[in-house]
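JOB MANIFEST
job_type = single_chain_structure
chain_count = 1
residues = 266
[input]
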Amino acid sequence: MRACLPTPALLCPAMLLLLTLVVSPTPTTAAQNTTTTTTTPSCPPASCGGLNITYPFWLTGTHPPECGYKAFQVTCDRSNASLKNSFLQYQILNISYDESSFILATNVDLSDGTCNCELFSDASTDLGLAPFTISSQNLQLLFVYGCDLRERHAPHSWAPVNCTDEDDSSESFALLAGNYTPGDTSPEMPLPANCILSMMPVLGYEGATGADYQRLLKRGFLLEYTDDGCGDCTASGGQCRIDVAHDVSSCHCSDDDEQPLPYICG
């Protein structure tokens, strides 16, 4: 059999294969030469229960976490928008982006007579670490329960709360006090030593009293948050996004410039 000679005009198939393997880039080399680009996650407005959900809020299952702050995460269940990251479940009744405020209501129902006043607590305790504040426009709805008044009579401003699950020897009352102040639970008279007190902020209305506790709870209470300057970013063509690891916001501009808020794209 004649051997294949390595002449300039003719190379044997084995040598051609060897040259191909040496000269051709490996898949790893090709991948290393590819430029990796990151894109800003899309955060189109979403809808739940007739509410427009957009920055700084974001809707679970629709938006990625980069679309809003962690404390502003919203869940949607049967067309009801709820604030997710809180001990109690709060339904979002309204959002005003122009005024940087929104209205929450608890899901506690006292209308069936099986109420448990222990479910109520100062909402500032539950929401105290969140980046929003309970507005001073709210009033204080106080619940006085577990009372054994014996020979004493409750003030006229104390409206009885009918809770059939409580001991017959105890009594529960609701009263509407002055403007909301975090941590201030001062009724109009000293409490009997055996009474327990809890409070919820509520948006009052003309003529409301403690007897309207059910309607007041359903109307909810007002919260306010600080404008972080996102409006200026979006007006200049940018997009506001969240660094999820640190829960801080930034403005992403079309030229790939990214700066902490407040910022205006040039």
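[summary]
The two ends are 76 Å apart (CA to CA).
Confidence is low (pLDDT under 50) at residues 1-37.
exit_status = 0
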